[in-house]
Amino acid sequence: MRNFATLYFTTLLLFATQVSAVGGYQATYELVVGNLSVGKMDRSFVVAADGVYHFTSTFQTTGLAAILRKEQVTESSSGTFRDGVFAPEQYTYTRKRKKKPKHITTQFDRTGNRIDTIINNQQKSSSLPAGVLDKLIYQAALMHDLELGKPQFRYVIADRGKEKIYEPVAEGNVSIETELGTFETIKLTWQSKGDSKSTTFWCAAQFGYLPVRVLHRDEDGSETIASIVTYQKRDVDNGMDN
User: pTM for this one?
Assistant: First the structure.
């Protein structure tokens, strides 16, 4: 059985909202490997009127996959979105399973101009580059850039004490059928450097360019598909669904 924590990361499930000062959402995806449903992912994103955002994502194995390997991965990102720019302040990652649990906390110290990352009680520090994002909120930044009509994308990501560059490429418009209906989407692909891994995702303008489907292809040719199954827009002021 595949490593589901790796599956969670490598799918690079890109999810965002129509980024406004008073909007938010909740959504769920189903993850499938071959003909087997292996898990679900719940996501919640909120931006308050003062520009403070909170983004959370939880993946857990389900069905047969949960019997073979019970696992849960939770990510969170908090910071600000002002003048069209995301500025993360804290990112956390927690993997719960019997073997090799992991906890990561990343603090973005803009006063001290540094990034402090703690991985299972071991700390790493590095300088804070201009415009750097974390692994979760960059996904919202990409969707925002799609909404602005930008033709090219490049993001500097702080990842476990290192910097990585993500450059997804837009490949045209495609109609995609889902449990929520048919959507006109923009197809984008991210190709890993140094190996044959790739991730393709289809982002729907109707939902502010959140992806309604994601396909990850591993080095061995195996594929994982994540498909949206629920979506609710949230009211920031009272937390009620619209």
Answer: 0.84
